[in-house]
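Contributing new records

If you add data, match the layout below exactly. Sequence lines come first and carry their own label; structure lines follow with theirs. Keep one chain per record. Anything else will be rejected by the validation script.
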Amino acid sequence: MKRIKPVGVVIGIGLVIALIFGGIYVSSNWPFRFRSELDHFFGKGNWKVISEEKKESIMYDVMVSSRNDVASQSTIPGKFHEWNISFSNADGKQEIWQLSDHTMRINHDKYIIFSKNRYSAKQALVQELMEISFIVAGNEIRQDVVEKILPKNEADCLSVALTYRGENPEPGFYDKLWKEPWFTVDQVSVKDYLESDLYEFYIDIFAYDYRVEKLTQKEKEHMMDSFDELEEAIRKTYGEKVKYEIYFDHEHSKEQ
């Protein structure tokens, strides 16, 4: 019996170590940890991780101590993960989007554990998924409005996005957003956000100067002459009370 006890202790310690490292792995591996949430957002069986990478941050640092002198400390760049996710969109086409825990790590570096401004891991995940849904919504605006008015060369000069006004939402906002029935990659639409009372969302359209400069004079004139038509189409498509900012140049800009 005396010989068995040390073996049992060693096995017990080994299990504890395995559990600790297993917990760390699961906690940091978002596609594994949040599989059910990603199934809900992208559709079960409709997504997969095609690559992942660990990177150094330029946004936050971590403190490290010297092995030879514990009192001596220095800073090194913090680390974060990126995962490239492949999925089929509503049209059956393959798309690749990126998830990252970078925002969460920056947030955790800034706020202490009991701060009301500190994100949970799931809240940070929803924030990442929201950014993906913004791109989906932006593509909807481009297809349903912009490209029906401007030819491709001119439309490609514009950034078309859905976003929000003011400071970043508080962490609890993401809990509410996650509960919205339309918050999936196939169901989300521009109107869902614009008609939501969760936050003040708006359409943001602006022209890249360097792209406009590459247009012919005739294309530039047509693009500028189409400003009022584009603004009217935004209101007609999304309602007279729709909030937006449109900027082509100093003479062609409007905010509502």
